[in-house]
Each structure stands twice: as C-alpha cells, then as structure tokens.
Amino acid sequence: MRTGEKALCVSDTGRFFATSPNFLDRLCGENLTSEDWDLLADQGCAILDGDALGAVSHIYGVAERLTRAGALDYLILVPTLRCNLSCTYCQVSRAGLHQPGFDWSEETLGSVLQLLDSLATPRIKIEFQGGEPTLRPDLLRAVIDRCERFEDRQFVVCTNLHELSDEILELFDRADLYISTSLDGDAATHGRNRTGGDASTGQFLANLRFVIERYGPHKVSALPTIDAASPPDIDGLIDAYVEHGLESIFLRPINYQGFARKRYPGAREQSDAWRLYYERFVRRLIERNWQDRSRVLEESYFSICLRRIFQPGADRHVDLRNPNPMGVDYIVVDHDGTVFPTDEARMLSRSGVVDLSIGDVANGWAGEKRELLNRHATNQFDPACQRCAYQPYCGRDLVDDIARYGRIDFPKPETEFCRRHLHIFDFLFDLIYDEDPAVRYSLSRWLRLAGTPPALGEILG
Amino acid sequence: MIPLNLPAFAEAERPFVTRLRTQNHSPKPSDSLLVDADETGSSFAGKNGLFAVDGTSALQMEGDVVLVQPIGGGAARMERLLRAGSHHNTLLVTERCDQLCVMCSQPPKKTHVDRFDLFEEACLLAEPGTLIGISGGEPTLYKDRLCSMIERVLGAREDLEFHVLSNGQHFERDDIERLRNPVFRRVCWGIPLYGAEPALHDRIVAKDGAFARLEESFATLLLSGARIELRTVLLSINLSALPSLARHVTRRLRFIECWSIMQLENTGFARNRWSQLYVDHGTNFSPVAAALDCAALHGIPARLFNFPRCSVPEPYRAQAPASISDWKRKYMPPCSACREREQCCGFFEWHPDDEAIRAVTPL
User: Fold this and answer.
1) Interchain CB distance below 8 Å, A310 and B297
2) Does the beta-carbon distance from A57 to B299 stay under 8 Å?
3) B35-53 mean pLDDT
C-alpha cells in the first residue's frame, strides 16, 4: 500500500485484505502455514479441499464482477449541435447558433421514434446532449411523448441553463425529468471558462437558483470542468455548490476532446499537480462532512469507484465497467442520425481524429466495426491488468486510449486511464484503512450505509 | 385475527377444492355459489353438493379458494387456502420435519397426509399474479411431489409465483437439471441459517451435521440458478453471533436474493421457552446494526422482519417492512397515534401484551 508497511491482497473476486510483510513473504514464497490457509479460506480467498460451496461461491464472485449488459435501454440523443455559448474547452466543437444543417431532420426524428417503438425493455433512460438541446424543445417533446409506454422513464437534459423559455419549463416540470448543468466554481471562474461575460454569468446563476427553488436540489445536478493547470480554490468551489444546495460534485478535468485538444494541449496527460489537487479536494470534503453532519458532500466519481470495490454489480456508470461493451445497452445518436458507441467517440469523430461511428439510427449499428471494438472491450486479458490488484474494480475505455494515443494497445501503465485509476484506487485504499473516525464517517456515507462500521477493511497476519 | 379454518357441514364424502362466490357473475364449474346466509353462517352449493360454514360472513370470503374436508357424519372443516386479495397465503404441505428447531412456530408431527393434488387444484384457481407460500413441516421431504406440483402449476399459469420455506437438507446434485427448468425462476426458496458456526446452527435446529448438509445444498442451489431468501431468526443464543454471520453471508452466500433477519414468534415451541429464547433488540440493537451495515457494505439486501418500526433506530427503519401476515397481526392501543403504522409489522397476535405495550413508542 502507498502508506505504511502493509500490503494489500486482492482476489479475482475483488475480496481484499491488508497484511503484514511477513505474511506476504510466506504467501509469495509458498510457505503458508495451515493457520494461514484457514485465514485465507475464511476471507473467501482460498478454497480448501472438499469445500464445494467455497468453490462455486468463488466462481460466482468472479462472474459477479463482469458487466452483464442487457438490452438497449439508454440513449444519448443529440437533437442539435448548435449552441448559444462558446466555452473555451468545448468538447464537441459545437456549431454556431444560427448555422443550418446541425439539427435532426424530419427523417432522423422519425427513425429515433421508430427505434423507441422497437425497444423491448420496460425501462428507458434518455440523456439529451448537444450542442444545447433546449434550443429544440419540439424535438425533446416528441421523444418524451413517445416514451409514455415505458413503465420506468428517466430523462436528463444536459443544458447550460442559459435560456429558460416557458416551453422548456413545461418540460422541466415533469417528475421524471432531471436537469444536468455545468458550474465551474465562483462567478468569475465560471464566466472565464464558459459564458465570457458578467451579464450572461449572472443570468445563468439566476436560472440555476430558479430551477433549484422550483424543483429542489434532487432534480438538478451540476459538474465543474477544471483546468488542471490553474484549478480553482477548493473551498470556493465547494461553497459555490453548497450555496445552491448541491451536495455531489463531479470533479472533471478538461477532457482532451474537441476544441480542448488545441487550446489545452496539457490536458492530454494529467499531472501530479492534478492528482494532488484531487486528493486535497476529497480530504477537504471529509473534513467538512465531519464538521457539519447536516449534509453529505461527495465527489461523485470517487463514490462510484469506492462502491465498485465493495459492491460488485455497480455497473450503471458506463464509463467504468468491465467488460465495457460498445453499442449494446446504450448508444449515442448524433445530430445527423449517426450512431456512436459513446459520447467521447462522437467528440473524437467530430474532431476528425478517427471515425468511430458504428452506423446510423435508420439502418442499424450491429456491424463489423462494433464487433471489432467489442473484441477488445475488456481488461481481463491485458497482461498489465491481469497483474493489477485493482482489475476487479476497474474498467476499460477503448475510446479514451484512441483519443489520447491513437491506438488501443499502448502499454496500460502508460495510459492516462490507468494512471488516473491507479491513483484513485491507491488513494481509496489509504482511506479504507485510515483509522480517523472522520474518514470512516464520510466513506460510510458515500457507501450509503446506515451506520459507520468500526472498520471497512480487515488486516490479516 | 382472521380465521383460516372454519367448522362446516358438507354433503360430499371426499375432500374437494372450490372457489366461494357470493354473487352469480358467470359461474365456472369450480365455483360454489352462496345460497343462504344468516348471522351465524352461510351455505354454498357447487358441483360437490351443498356445504355450510360457521363463523365468518360470506362477503368476507368472496373469491376465496377453499378446501372442504369431511371428517365424518356430515361434519367437515373448511380451510381458506387462498384468500382473495391477501398477500399472505400459505399452503401447509406436510407436518413432518427432520429438524426440531428450538423455537419452531409449527411443531412437527409424525404423520403425513398427502394433499398435493388438492393443493395443485387450488393453485390453478389462484387469482392472477398471486405469490403462493408453501410451508410445513419440511416440504422437501416430499421433494418429487412438491417439484411436480410446482412444475405443473407454473407451466399452466405464467402469472403465478411460489415461495417455499425449506430447511435445505434435501437438495442433491441430481436435482440441478430439474431446478434449472425456467419455471423455477418463479420460485423463491426461504432457507434458514442461524449462525456461521456449524455447532451453533446445529444446536438451534437440533440436528447434527445440519450446517454441513446445508452448505452442500447451497452449492447445489447456486449451480441450479435458484433464488434464495436467507432467513435468520433472532434468539438470545445467536444475537451476538449475528455480525459474524453477516460476514459469512457476504463471503460465501453472495448469490442469495435477500437476507431476512426475523424477530421471534411467540407460538409453537417458542411459547414455553419464551424467556430463554426471546431477546429484546430494543435494548441491544448494536449486533443487528453491525450485521445490517456489513450486508449493505457488500451489497447484500437485508431486511428486518417482525421488528416494530419504533423499536428500530431511525437510520435502519426503512429496512423494517410490515412483514407479519395480515391474519395474525395486531397493534397496541398507542399505535393508533403512530404516523408509521401503515408501514409497520405490528406484533404477532400471540405476542404477550404486557411486553408489547412496553415496547411501543409511537412515532
């Protein structure tokens, strides 16, 4: 482990324990005593002779770690690529507000509706991306109306909240609709990155306040995009969220996509400075949660990774799962009807780096290209991942590798994806074995536990 | 308390299953129609002749699927097998058992009366979408009869489901193929485990080797893709072992669908051993809390059955549903002021009133 003398042992099922260097020596030297074996078996990390249940339970545990992608029930839709803002780091290279040819045509809308009719699942999740999707409330409404037949519906509108027309508010009033927006920090930071002016920043903040007052904070999520080269003051950023009643902050460094590739070339690799900032940010959340128990602040991605350590099957976050099948349970439909396996694949294609489209919404996407991607959409047989303690918790992101390095066979430890997750999991295990009650308190909340257990990880030997 | 067994008179000489109808909608051959009723009882007529029932008004039994069992000289007993609109219908398929649990609520008998054919008939008449409970004794002592009934009923009725209470002592490797039949996706096996220590479990069920045999069965059921509800009754002798059981479950029994931790029912053997066995979780909730936290940490859904909500600390209260069957549930007078009464299990009808009243603090 990163700190102290202990070593972390993780089995294929993701069960783990910390241990002394002595135990580790016996384990590696194949000198285990019979007491050691009993302890390992008790951890579910060894199967003793004749233990039929232990054997099948282990196999089940390995299987539990694998994503079971179901039928298509999650669509990311881009009804328009036009936008009324021009953020410095725009990841999709948005089109101008009045540029023609960047909205769904009648035919594309028809094909999307037909696709909805053809889905066999009882539930549907639709995320409207852009561009700025609220520029086309008519298209949003047409899609939402067509989903009435699903038992369970969830709509997310990813919007800059710049303009709030009555027509949009009528859609927002739906109980099954959620609003996702960007909030980069205090007004000055937000203005510098996104709106480019005090007046429009003021308008955005007024709109954000308005929707939160109207619907409550549960319906609104926001995430800050951080320029790692000059990150905002931590407490200032947290305060900007707390002020609006928002408790989850998804700290997102500038994505190496779209306009950002040219304007923020440093975003290709995250630096140690970023990782240090990230740790300071999480530690500050822990302190603040301990001081004020009336709410639980969290960094969303940190919580996702934490839950993946303890709770196999937490696979709904499609950016971190293994295998990570492409074009199966979710797809992206672009402004021209092109189908992409992920939103990042759309951005990459738009930047002209590589065409990762897998088809179009009228004619389908189950072709050779999707198969090719899916043959490599797992971390299980990668020589580096196989030797990594965090493999059961980690994921695979082909598109990210292609975006940064133009290939998928780059040695994993040299990829940004790997470095980022190694760091997060190292940091997480430091905290899991941290005896500070404030740390355990926050971790238990992020794990959604009712109480705070005396320890989250066991120590052997 | 809702009466399930009623004295009756019947023309028939053999037992039969029928559905009670108070109004002539569009009668099916399996229906018996109300012909007369007064304050003391009602009489019905169907293809098995006339029968009269005492004790409950006909309207309350509208739509019930009942078994009329002649006991000689015209006298009979009527069992309300599947009460219309109730979510708590259980068929007692045998009274024999090969365990003798210290707190058994339904103490076993030596003899077995095979009524599977009648039960099958009743199940086929069940209201759409019913979950039918099967209990005993130990139903899997008649594993082949039981499975055949399940296969035929679920094969004929795609809308039905079964929940079978079993001690898990009789599943064998040879059953795997049979249990992989997709109809068994609609069967959940409720199986008890009282501790992670073999000796503790064996002592509670009064059978040597029961724990080891159960582990074999769990392996078989996992390989069969069976759905399992794990059940643990809380006792003075296993309360402190609950956290270690939770750890055991999260390591070896991850494939269960849910884990039910159940407070003791004051009936059967538990009645005379109440002071030895019953443990008031209200005064020592920490082992229960530790077990719930451990299960939640590792993603195992756990629930508290028969735990009145006011006796459960607030953070864990959502895990205590209204679990006690409607026909044997009661509340104390102060409960009428409680805002969570609707979500609360209340008490078993036979729970000592003096203890219950002391336990209640309306929310």
Assistant:
1) yes
2) no
3) 90
Residues in chain A: 461
Closest CA to A177 of A148, A153, A212: A153
Chain B residues in contact with A46 by the CB 8 A cut-off are none
The reply to whether residue B252 touches residue A55, judged by beta carbons under 8 angstroms, is no
Amino acid, single-letter form, for residue B191: I
A180: CB partners within 8 A, 6+ apart? A127, A156, A157, A158, A159, A220, A221, A222, A223
pTM of this prediction? 0.92
Nearest to A53 among B252, B290, B298 (CB): B252
Question: Distance (Å, rounded) from C-alpha A421 to C-alpha A393?
Answer: 10
**Which ipTM score applies to this complex?**
0.91
CB atoms within 10 A of CB B24: 9
Beta bridge partners of B6: B78
Pick from B126, B118, B180: which is nearest to B157 by CA? B126
Q: Is A95 helix (H, G, I), strand (E, B) or coil?
A: strand
Query: Residue B160 has what DSSP assignment?
Result: -
A52–B215 CB contact, under 8 Å? yes
Residue in the block written with tokens 């909805």: A116
Whole-angstrom distance, CA of residue A177 vs CA of residue B88 = 37
- Torsion sign, CA atoms B147, B149, B153, B159: negative
pLDDT for the residue numbered A258: 63
Q: What is the pLDDT of residues A418-439, one digit of tens each?
A: 999 999 999 999 999 999 999 9
Report how far residue A372's alpha carbon sits from residue B105's, in angstroms, rounded to the nearest whole number: 60
Dihedral-angle region of residue B264 (phi above 0 means left; psi in -120 to 50 means alpha; beta otherwise):
beta
Give me the residue from A54, A312, A453 closest to B293, CB to CB.
A453
Half-sphere exposure of A194 toward its Cβ, with a 13 Å CA cutoff?
Answer: 28
Nearest to A152 by CA among A133, A180, A173, A175: A175
User: pLDDT per residue over A323-337, tens digit each?
Assistant: 999 999 999 999 999
Q: Is the pLDDT of residue B23 over 70?
A: yes
CB A31 within 8 A of CB B230: no
